């Protein structure tokens, strides 16, 4: 098991290094001058040069890259040029919105998708199966911002039970804050639940055709026990793969949803930083998201080994 973990950690470290180079290089070739954007078109050359020096833009690209990486390793993500605030403080301030949103969305997606996938697989070829997968196909095809608009009309405009947007902050109480996250999390969760339900159904159908499932049924085990105790565990490998990918998407792909609901999260922070060409903020947030993806994939790999111990030997 230790060799398995060491190999996965090494892969994650290499991924982070390559991602940091790509992120830094891509943002370096983006056209535009941050100093000119901040000071305006009427700024004097002397003022522009002084601001570029203050921002470190007069240094060579390799020096700026290693300064950036070294700072992050020491917990210093730099200082935002737009907000005049440490980037790490901005990430923490916005992350307490985006992280609960992603976790709640993943919980809702899993709670919806796995029962639906098992239900459809256990009734293969029936009307219930066709209806479930038809609904899942619609969920895959429709973008999440369209779901967001429908949810706003239904729960905020018509029923008036949930706020249409904004975030009161956790200081206002857990329930008011969660109420503000319910519709955004549903809008994020429904398309992901549709994908996960289809994957769960396919994995369950493959497992249900195995000999040990027929043997379990022949021994007199109930259909429910066979489905949930034997079939589901052996079908979890592809399901865990999709769950890992979905959490990364939910954490990194909230830009549209956070702007629809006016949530002060990481997605909206990145959007604002890109429009203002605050590159140090974009670099810090993107690298944090990459690190979160690496950690989630590591957790998924560990869960693989827990579900199927044979993978430890193969690794």
TrEMBL record:
Matches recorded under InterPro entries: BPD_transp_1_N, MetI-like, MetI-like_sf
Gene3D superfamilies per the UniProt record, alphabetical: MetI-like
Keyword Transferase (UniProt): no
Organism: Aquamicrobium zhengzhouense
Annotated transmembrane regions: 9-30, 96-120, 141-161, 173-196, 231-257, 285-307
A Pfam family annotated for this UniProt entry: BPD_transp_1_N
Location of this chain's protein in the cell: Cell membrane
Entry similarity comment: Belongs to the binding-protein-dependent transport system permease family.
Protein name as catalogued: ABC transporter permease
Entry keywords, A to Z: Cell membrane, Membrane, Transmembrane, Transmembrane helix, Transport
Alphabetical list of PANTHER family matching this protein: DIPEPTIDE TRANSPORT SYSTEM PERMEASE PROTEIN DPPB-RELATED
Residue intervals of the ABC transmembrane type-1 domain: 95-304
The keyword Isomerase appears for this protein: no
Membrane topology annotation: Multi-pass membrane protein
